[in-house]
Amino acid sequence: MRTQRQVVDYSLQKRAVLRELLAGRVGTYDVCDASPYLKNAARFHGEPTDRRCPICRSENLTLVHYIYGDELKQSAGQARTLTELPVLAMTLREFQVFVVEVCLGCDWNHLVEQYLLGRDGLTGDIDGTGEQDAAVAEGAGRRRREAQR
Ligand SMILES: [Zn+2]
Asked: What is the pLDDT of residues 38-79, one digit of tens each?
């Protein structure tokens, strides 16, 4: 999604957990502890992936998108399907998305990333990371230069 901003990637933390597991410093019961709520969210709102679970290697991972933000009111903290997010992003100014990967086979779960979505990102993006943002900034710069002439 183009409006994703302030993305935080948790893949380093995930790798660290998997290393601890391989080294025997933590047990699978410590990391495969998906709650019934999380598993239900994965079943009903989850996004299937073709990536194998790093623990049991027999099931594919499911991504669950949790949304948080004052504007969401009672919907805050609920899981949403990936297709619902762009719709929300058009109607709300700003909300936080937490992406959690879950294995429905062995209950492995880990936070994958978090980011902000919402209409606020469509104008005046401070980060200016996306291609579109760069193009917009370039266009604005050109317009400014033309205006100066
Ligand atoms: Zn698994």
From this structure: 999 999 999 999 999 999 999 999 999 999 999 999 999 999
Which residue in this structure is represented by tokens 């879950």? 102
- What element of type H or E holds 139? helix 131-148
Quote the ligand 1 centre to 95 CA distance (angstroms).
Answer: 30
Give the pLDDT confidence of 75-113 residue by residue, as tens digits: 999 999 999 999 999 999 999 999 999 999 999 999 999
Whole-prediction pTM: 0.79
Question: How far is the centre of ligand 1, averaged over its atoms, from the C-alpha of 39 (Å)?
Answer: 12
CA 120 to ligand 1 center in whole angstroms: 37
Question: How distant is the alpha carbon of residue 11 from its chain centre?
Answer: 12
Would you say 71 and 62 are in contact if contact means Cβ atoms under 8 Å apart? no
Find out whether 50 and 118 touch, Cβ atoms under 8 Å: no
Residues surrounding ion ligand 1 at CB below 5 Å = 53, 55-56, 103, 105-106, 108
